From TrEMBL:
SMC hinge domain boundaries: 523-635
GO molecular function, one term: ATP binding
Tagged with keyword Phosphoprotein: no
Gene3D superfamilies tied to this protein: 1.20.1060.20, 3.30.70.1620, P-loop containing nucleotide triphosphate hydrolases
Coiled-coil regions, chain positions: 164-191, 259-370, 412-504, 744-771, 842-911
Main location as per UniProt: nucleus
Protein name: Structural maintenance of chromosomes protein
UniProt keyword annotations, A-Z: Cell cycle, Cell division, Coiled coil, Mitosis, Nucleus
Keyword set includes Lipid metabolism: no
Length: 1206
């Protein structure tokens, strides 16, 4: 066995995880600078393997944990052993031991499993790590202490190695036991002396005591007879009272049964009254709701009727208005016809007048042209001096006129084109007018409006119907909430009743379980057992007595669920609860009796199969019997518990329990009442949720309808609004129409004027050409003058006629314009407005009246239905009131009967209490008499003779007084003399026997001490022989030329003189150590050596140099190891004080020994490195140590560098 690997983390300077792997099973050397952590490395191994680091304080543990940058809260050291040789009693090739330390912990583990320190130390000791030989680990300073040790200290070391300390401890214990035995024997001797003296005194008192006892016997006889007679009298009186009491109990039992029946009846009446009150409350809620609804419907009928009347009045007004409008319509239509006829007449006339006017204007224009030509001609001749000059001017005029004529013809053509274009525009405008007018007032537009109005009206009716349904649902919601509030109060009352049947902690715990279950969403909590079972009224008392508080035990699916809830209960400090985890209980099947006068209680209990084990656990071993006597027999025979229907119980151990029980506060009934109310609440909450769901659904439907109404209303408004742009457009189009028509008319008139100008120009050209071809004369010719006069006259006449025609045309056109304005701006718009208002007003009012009539009819039908329902409700309310009064009267009557029964029972109770009080006094007297009889002790046979039957109590009392007076003479007598004599004799015999036992024990202890001393001396001698031989061998190997031996110093007369002389030089502790060895034959071990010759006189160790002393100490340590070998050795700088030649010898010897055991050494010297198998270097950086494997040359280089620096 050897160490394969060491892992250190957080221990002293080893902050980080340091792994020293592949450690050689032979010779290993660790090198490093002073302070680098070599000693801490060895300390880490000792931390795991030795008992040095035990019972440490917090500060000492803190000192072992790395103290540097960063917080290290724990440290551990792990050692991996090679166990291929099986030295550890573990069937593994590797054994891992770890020790972990923290501020508040110190733990061991074996193969990564937790273990105790005792187990680890035992394992190590069994593997060869002996506590009596601590030298397999040699830390710094151990060599020096051994070097300077005195002879008796080396002897103590040898004793430790030999195990002599064990014998010494046993010797000390044996000596203490010997002292204890002597002390007990001395006390026994003193007691025996006292007892012998006391027996002598008591022997003289026995005769006097004999006479006294004769009188005492007579006294006992008389006292017994008197006591016995008094006892019989008390017993007879008690029996009479018991008989009366049994009669009273029998009578009261009948009254109690009647009382229980009354209680049940009252309970049923109370339940019925509560039920009737609940129904009355609901009827009251319904009545108030329906009354409110009737008032609301009446209000709606009133409002709707008022609206209907108002609409009808408005409708009548509209009818009158329509009648007036109809007359206006007829009048307008007549006017339209007349105006249109008038237009038809006037337009041709105006056209004719215009033609005539234009013809006259044209003719006048020609005449004036001719006049102007003649006037021009008359004036021109004064300007020209010759014909040529005149002709030139005429030619210019002709050219100008022709140019003007061509331009005018072009203008006519342009105007005609424009007229043609505008006529096309006019045609399109007229088509637009028809389209727009059709869009505004056409059948399709009107139908669209009516369709939207109809849809809106239908939706409003549907909205009203849906809203009525929603109001009904609201009323149902209010009603359900009121009922639910009432039920909640009843549930709270039921919970209070249940809580009254249990203690406060249990109640708080059950409430907390319910809250925790809901909060954590636990599925495995079934609830209290009492709520999970159902029991017939007949078996309720039996079930309650059997279950007891188990009714409130909470059934859960597993202990894990129970643990979760219990942790929460502890955390919240909220009550106590007992759980029944189904996975942890498995009740055995029970064999029940087949008798007809009993039945298993569990068969009378209803429960879910899922909780069967819980029910069997509580009720499975109980049967219900017809009476307690039969139940007692069956319970003893079948090892079951038996119970009667009244709750009297006989358990399988033979204990009977029974008596009156008040079931007015029945747990099961309270829990069932609570369950029923919770079911009602659940049902009502479900109904309320359904109503709320219906309300939400109805709200959505109404919202959809409302949105649809809004949408259609928006469409309607949009449609109406869309008419306004059309009307504006129509107005604009009509304006364009009139404008184009006016333009066409103006252009036509302009064409006419241009044509007239062209005619005038044509005439002018003819006259100019004629003049040009005529002779040049000054002034006009006569014909021309005549023509001019004729022209003037004709022009004047035609102008006069033209004026007349123009005036007539103006008058006609003015009248025509007025007619057209009246037609277009008055009559036709008014006609359209009347027609539109007539249709829309009539339609809207018809629809509104129809809707209102239907709504009023529906409201009236609803009113009648609700009124009938309300009448029925009031009838039911009155019926329930009468029923409640009847039940209340019955309850009052039952209460009165109950009070009378209770009063009767109280009378029985008072009588029974008086009898029981008297019986108690009699029982007390009887007990006192019986106690006095018992105090008389053993009675003589004469006390039971019949000789005293004929004697009265007075006679016996006189004899008793006489005997008592006689006994007064013996007041000084020791009444317990005989008893004391016997007791002392018994004590004497016991003490004599005990003294013999102590003598035997002393002999055994003496023998044990002798054996222990012998064994101790043998162990010391054997160990000394082995160590002495090994020392000589080891010393010879270390110093081949020398010789060394150990010398055992024994106690002798001369040595005692030397010892006395030595005492003067010893300090107090050394003196105490020597005093403890006074019984030993050995006083010390000295070392005698010679370094130069095997034949020279040997020197004692005190005469050697320091290096030689260290070598002797090392030889002694290695000798001890050879006699008591360990699996491996840890040597910390053992060669520090040796000379070079001896360091080499020590190194070679350790290397030789490493073939059988593992050595791990530290050194600053090269000699050890020359022979080692493996090398490890300890580095220290930033206050952190690390260990790594190095090669031999590095190790030697490091040691040489250290020597040069030193």
């Amino acid at each position: 066995m050897h160490i394969k690997r060491i892992v250190i983390q957080g221990f002293k300077t080893y902050k980080n995880t340091t792994i020293i792997d592949d450690i050689s099973p032979g010779h290993n050397v660790v090198v490093g600078r002073n302070g680098s952590g070599k000693s801490n490395f060895f300390a880490a191994i000792r931390f795991v393997l030795s008992d040095q680091y035990t019972r440490m304080s917090k500060e000492e543990r803190q000192g072992l944990i790395h103290d540097g940058s960063g917080t290290i809260l724990s440290a551990y050291v792990e050692i991996v052993f090679d166990n291929t040789d099986g030295r550890f009693a573990i069937s593994k090739d590797e054994v891992i031991i770890r020790r972990t330390i923290g501020l508040k912990k110190d733990d061991y583990s074996l193969d990564h499993k937790s273990s105790t320190r005792t187990d680890i130390m035992q394992l190590l000791e069994n593997a060869g790590f002996s506590k009596s030989n601590p030298y397999y680990i040699v830390p710094q300073g151990r060599i020096n202490s051994l070097t300077n040790a005195k002879d008796f200290e080396r002897l103590n070391l040898l004793k430790e190695v030999a195990g002599a300390k064990v014998f010494e401890n046993k010797l000390k214990e044996s000596e203490k036991e010997m002292q204890k035995t002597k002390s007990q024997r001395d006390k026994i001797d003193e007691m025996l002396k006292f007892i012998h003296e006391r027996l002598a005194d008591l022997d003289s008192e026995k005769d006097e005591l004999k006479n006294f006892q004769e009188l005492e016997k007579d006294k006992k006889i008389y006292e017994f007879i008197l006591y016995d007679r008094e006892l019989n009298e008390c017993t007879t009186a008690i029996e009479e009272i018991d008989g009366d009491y049994q009669d009273a109990v029998g009578n009261s039992h009948q009254f109690i049964q009647e009382l229980e029946k009354r209680e049940n009846s009252i309970s049923e009446l109370n339940a019925s009254i509560e039920n009737i009150k609940h129904q009355i409350k609901i009827l009251g809620i319904d009545e108030a709701e329906k009354t409110s609804l009737l008032q609301e419907i009446q209000r709606q009928i009133y409002e709707k009727s008022a609206d209907l009347n108002e609409i009808k009045e408005h409708f009548d007004e509209n009818k009158k208005s329509l009648s007036r409008n109809q007359k206006q319509l007829e009048s307008i239509e007549i006017k339209l016809k007349n105006s249109e006829k008038d237009l038809e007449i006037r337009r041709p006339k105006i056209e004719s007048l215009k033609l005539e006017e234009r013809a006259l204007e044209s003719e006048i224009s020609v005449l004036r042209t001719k006049q102007n030509i003649l006037y021009s001609k008359q004036g021109r001749y004064s300007k020209f001096s010759s014909k040529e000059q005149r002709d030139n001017w005429i030619t210019e005029q002709i050219e100008e006129t022709q140019t003007y004529q061509a331009n005018s013809s072009l203008a006519v053509s342009t105007l005609q084109d424009e007229i043609s274009s505008q006529q096309n525009d006019l045609k399109q405008i007229l088509e637009q007018v028809d389209d727009v007018q059709d869009s505004i007032n056409g059948p399709t537009a009107q139908a669209e409006i009516q369709d939207l109005e109809t849809k809106i009206s239908d939706l409003r009716r549907k909205y009203a119907a849906e809203n009525d349904e929603r109001k009904y649902l609201w009323r149902e919601e209010t009603r359900s909430k009121a009922i639910l509030d009432s039920l909640d109060e009843e549930v709270r009352q039921a919970e209070r009743q249940v809580k009254q049947t249990m203690d406060r902690q249990q109640s708080s715990g059950l409430d907390s379980v319910k809250r925790i279950t809901e909060r954590l969403g636990l599925d495995g909590v079934y609830g209290p057992l009492g709520e999970l079972i159902s029991v017939n009224q007949k078996y309720r008392a039996a079930v309650e007595v059997v279950a007891g508080n188990s009714l409130f035990h909470v059934v859960v699916d597993s202990d894990q669920t129970a643990s979760i809830i219990m942790d929460e209960l502890v955390r919240e400090k909220s009550g106590r609860v007992t759980f029944i985890p189904l996975n942890r209980i498995n009740p055995k099947d029970v064999s029940y009796p087949s008798s007809s006068d009993c039945v298993p209680l569990i068969k009378k209990i209803g429960f879910d199969p899922e909780i069967q084990n819980a029910v069997k656990q509580v009720f499975g071993k109980t049967i219900v019997c017809v009476n307690l006597e039969r139940g007692y027999e069956l319970s003893r025979e079948f090892k079951l518990n038996a119970i009667t229907l009244d709750g009297d119980k006989a358990d399988k151990k033979g204990v009977l329990t029974g008596g009156y029980q008040d079931f007015r506060k029945s747990r099961l009934e309270s829990m069932k009442y609570k369950q029923d109310k919770n079911k009602e609440v659940f049902s009502q909450e479900k109904k309320l949720l359904e109503v709320k769901s219906s309300i939400a659904k109805k709200d959505q439907e109404i919202l959809v309808i409302n949105n649809e109404i809004s949408k259609l209303s928006t469409e309607f408004e949009t449609l109406l609004a869309s008419k306004k742009p059309l009307k504006s457009k129509l107005s604009s189009i009509l304006n364009d129409k009139f404008r184009i028509q006016d333009n066409i008319k103006l252009k036509e008139e302009k064409i006419v004027k241009i044509k007239e100008t062209l005619t005038t120009l044509e005439t002018k050209l003819e006259e100019l050409n004629r003049e040009k071809s005529s002779d040049f004369i000054e002034g006009l010719s006569n014909d021309e003058k005549n023509d001019l006069n004729g022209l003037i006259e004709q022009t004047s006449r035609l102008e006069s006629k033209l004026n007349g025609i123009s005036d007539l045309l103006i008058s006609e056109e003015s009248e025509l314009g007025g007619i057209e304005i009246e037609l277009n701006e008055v009559l036709r718009p008014r006609l359209q407005e009347i027609l539109k208002n007539k249709s829309s007003t009539q339609l809207n009012e018809d629809l509104t009246i129809q809707e209102l009539v239907e709504e009023i009819e529906n409201l009236q039908e609803k009113y009648q239905s609700i009124d009938v329902s309300l009448a029925q409700l009031r009838s039911d309310y009155d019926t329930k009131k009468k029923e409640l009064k009847k039940l209340q009267d019955s309850l009052d009557k039952a209460d009165d009967q109950q009070r009378r029964l209770i009063k009767t029972l109280e009378n029985y109770q008072r009588t029974s209490e008086k009898n029981l009080s008297r019986r108690s006094l009699l029982s007390k007297s009887r007990d006192d008499i019986q106690r006095k009889i018992r105090e008389l002790g053993a009675l003589p046979e004469q006390a039971f003779d019949n000789d005293f039957e004929n004697k009265s109590s007075d006679q016996l009392l006189k004899k008793l007084n006489k005997v008592t007076k006689s006994l007064e003479k013996f007041s000084h007598v020791n009444r317990k003399a005989l008893e004391q004599y016997l007791n002392f004799t018994k004590q004497r015999d016991g003490l004599v026997e005990r003294r013999k036992e102590l003598d035997n024990s002393e002999e055994s202890i003496d023998e044990l001490i002798s054996v222990l001393i012998s064994r101790k001396e043998d162990a010391i001698q054997n160990t000394f022989s082995q160590v002495s031989k090994a020392f000589s061998e080891v010393f010879e190997k270390l110093v081949p030329k020398g010789i060394g031996k150990l010398v055992m110093q024994t106690r002798s007369a001369e040595s005692q003189i030397a010892r006395d002389a030595l005492d003067e030089d010893l300090d107090e502790d050394e003196q105490e150590a020597l005093d403890g060895e006074e019984t030993d034959n050995y006083t010390g071990i000295s070392i005698q050596v010679s370094f130069n010759s095997k034949n020279d006189e040997q020197q004692k160790i005190e005469q050697l140099s320091g290096g030689q002393k260290s070598l002797c100490a090392i030889a002694l340590i290695l000798a001890i190891q050879k006699s008591d070998p360990a699996p491996f050795y840890l040597f910390d700088e053992i060669d520090a004080n040796l000379d070079a030649q001896y360091r080499t010898a020590v190194a070679n010897l350790i290397h030789e020994l490493s073939s059988d055991a593992q050595f791990i050494c530290t050194t600053f010297r090269p000699e050890m490195l020359q022979v080692a198998n493996k090398f490890f270097g300890v580095m220290f950086n930033n206050k952190i140590s690390t260990v790594s494997e190095i090669v031999k040359s590095d190790a030697l280089g490091f040691v040489e560098g250290q020597q040069q620096r030193s």
